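Form 7-S
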Amino acid sequence: QEPPGEEAAEKEPDVAKPEGKEDPPSPPEASAEPTRPQAAACPVGGRPGAVCGECGKSFSHKSALAKHQKIHRGERPHGCADCGKSFVQRSDLTVHRRVHTGERPYACADCGRRFSVSSLLLTHRRTHAPGDGNTDANRCPQCGRGFADPAALERHRKSHLGAKPYECGACGKAFAWSSHLERHRRVHTGEKPFRCGQCGRAFAWSSHLERHRRRPHRGEKPFQCGVCGKGFAWSSHYDRHRLTHTGERPFPCAHCGKRFGRSSHRNRHQRSHAR
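Output:
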């Protein structure tokens, strides 16, 4: 008689199952597809979290997740009209545009120096903080400003003495402040970081851009006469034109009192008294 086969040898004896009970279901087979991060559990009293399917980063609001996902898709919908550089968020564009406008909305309460971003202001304010608890040792005796270390105080005191320790390597001109030297260097480098968003013209200094913006661009005539409809590029030209309708003569001669509608006519008349 042949010995029982392997199947018969490995066969386990039947065991009676308790009535009313069944075998527990077998665990599901592992999926070959990678699992994506699951949404974070909802905190008590809060909103369900949102998780990025690309990197697993979690956010408290779906709107924040939507903004974040633009990074993975390469979307940069907010473009700078001055230089064309684009950004994921509008707030980043707002900060960037200060490069062109020269806007510095963050002012130091101690010295008045202004900055374009709040982080630079926070870094700067540490120079006014007392150093090692010895406030008097790093305080300027002339203006009372405090500094974080003796070196910062020494640099500041030179401004009271008329010293100009920051010298331009190109022309030798010296300045009391390093920021003034940096601004001066644009004369030599030709750098013009402040650009007009309307015409594209660039300027080395923000003050020049602001002055340019106050002037009308070519072909613009924003000042229109309500009487005859004639347009003018300059408000001063518009004011002078209005006198032709009102008959007003606001420029009197200092010698005889005769009045004129234009200052140039008055000046020409006054020269006749000097002959």
